[in-house]
Amino acid sequence: MLTETLLISLGVFAVAFMFAPIGLGGGMLFVPLLHYGLGWEINGALFAVSLSLTAVVSWGSGLAHRKQNHYDDSTLRIGIKGAVPGAVVGVGIVVLIDDKMDFVFKILSIVMITWAIYKTIGKMKDESEGDDEEFDVIVVQPLALQIGAGIGGILSSVLAIGAGVIYVPVLRTFGQLEPRKAIGTSLHFMMVVVPVAILAHLLALPSDMFNRLSEEVIPILIFMILTFLGARSGAKYGMKYLSEKQLMRVFLVILFVVVTRYVIDLTGI
After folding, report:
1. Which of 12, 60, 93, 160 could disulfide-link 231, Cβ–Cβ 3.0 to 4.6 Å?
2. Are 61 and 229 within 8 A, CB to CB?
3. How does pLDDT run across 84-141, given as a tens digit for each residue?
4. What does the alpha-carbon distance between residue 147 and residue 157 come to, in Å, rounded to a whole number?
5. Which stretches within the chain are classed as H helix?
6. What whole-number distance in Å separates Cα of residue 126 and Cα of residue 144?
7. CB 117 within 8 A of CB 252
8. C-alpha Rg value of the chain to the nearest Å
9. Whose CA is closest to 112, among 53, 189, 164, 177?
10. Closest Cα to residue 15, out of 63, 69, 46, 56?
């Protein structure tokens, strides 16, 4: 068990390092790491832990992006009105689904990530063909932005993720933000939304799941420390060495890897 915990600890650091520069919280990999690596069941307790690690990533990387002014306050204020209520609704969905959570979790993950891949590729294609000349004349779409952020908030609670795979395409499409500001603003969404989702999950947990968490306090604290270190170093590396196109390419590669893993798991290939 010690060996597995050490390997997962390294994995947690690596996930935070990779995800922080691209506006994601890492929940897409934190959940499978803990589920497959340590044998934790996919339930509210695992979601609370994954979201806690995601919160650490979002704050560690979000503060680094804020320092460099890679965020947009006006878009953040619009979107957060949909994202926070969405997170509370998402916890209610988890409670209702209960024992079907594993299957529903993986199906929703596949759908969500496929959508994010489609939107990101489309946006990159438009910009490479010069369609970004229209960028300045297209206004922000507040209602679409709030709805998109609300979906992100719901999925944050249902899938135990930061929902950057939703926020980044939504901010770019409906908020008209360039990549770095979309990434930084996505992290700012998480800095507010994820703690709300954690609190809602903890309030909804049955006593046996609380007991499960209390037995894992030490490794959870270790994971959180490593996550913070990985997020801070990853954010600084990404802002210094990766161009906006490279950030979006890394974003896409990670999405492809995760969706492939869930498809294999569901189909038994």
Report:
1. 60
2. no
3. 999 999 888 888 876 676 677 778 778 877 877 787 787 677 666 655 444 444 577 8
4. 16
5. 2-19, 27-32, 38, 44-67, 73-97, 101-128, 142-159, 164-174, 179-204, 207-215, 217-241, 244-267
6. 20
7. yes
8. 17
9. 164
10. 56
